[in-house]
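Dear colleague,

As promised, here are the two records you asked about, laid out in our usual form so they can be pasted straight into your sheet.

NAME FIELD: protein one
SEQUENCE, THEN STRUCTURE:
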Amino acid sequence: MKKDKIQEAMRLYLVTDRRWIHHSLYEDVEEAIKGGVTCVQMREKHLDISTFINDAKDIKKLCLKYGVPFIVNDNVEVMLAVDADGIHVGQHDMQAKDVRKCIGPDKILGVSAQTVEQAIQAYQAGADYLGVGAVFSTSTKDDAVEVSIQTLQKICQSVPIPVIAIGGIDMTNILKLKKSGIKGVAVVSAIMAQDDIQKATMQLKEKALLL
């Protein structure tokens, strides 16, 4: 994926979570893409490596079919094995500069940040975008650190790469992030946990376009 396309891909960014699968991961992700998701990150903390790779190959093919970037969370081995579009790493994962060396200059590198200092370090290490949060309380990540909207604004002002907000974002609070400087939002349960994934995604996309 060309780097100049990254910003538009950040508008409505889906992070997968198997806890809410309705039919299959493939089918649920496809419903989300049909509803307007602009990027898909596959996050798997408990799968064995071979199953992760096999499932990631399927989701990559799905994303390729619809022209949506496919990102792997935290696992360089899986990302390289399936030739994903990119990888996202947290502050407690592999160092961003080391990840960049492994994946080369052309793949997308996303990094989580909670402070201006972390944001600047990630940018200098080669990050293409930042995921900042949790901006609201969330049940999907046990170790999430809450980030104020004021800090979010300062992070957006401190780096020239796209910043997306994550953490507890849903239909009821997404517009509280308006004018913060973010280029999009990353969501989990606001899409994955909904009875009608496609409809929920479409409604969320309408609000995301107002940011």
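NAME FIELD: protein two
SEQUENCE, THEN STRUCTURE:
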Amino acid sequence: MAVFSIGIAGGDVLNGWIKNHVKRVRPENHLMETAGFSFPSGHAMMGLIFFIMVAYLIMKEMKGNSLKWAVGIGFVCLILLIGVSRIVMKVHFPTDIFAGFALGAAYSLTLFKLYKFLGPRVL
């Protein structure tokens, strides 16, 4: 749970730091009020980090490969729906979503490597 908590909190800090340095303005949207900068998408990045970590924890305990595939595909679909919804609602550009996914994936992989390296020693 420590890695999960650190992962979510660290991802949010990283996303905010990048947004404040890039300062990309959001697309014009007259349907809803939006605040903050656009790049990268925090929903895409944090959604990917959260659901990859949840999927990892669930799949780690499963025995059957077919069930692991089903869970994995389900979580991938959920993550993609988050990205698509942000574009459809016109609160992000597609590049914001792709960047959020890429940064979230890189951050998640780093967390998993760190967990495997430090896990037995620290946890």
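A couple of things worth noting about protein two: Residues 94-122 form the longest helix (29 residues). The chain is about 75% helix and 0% strand.

Best,
R.
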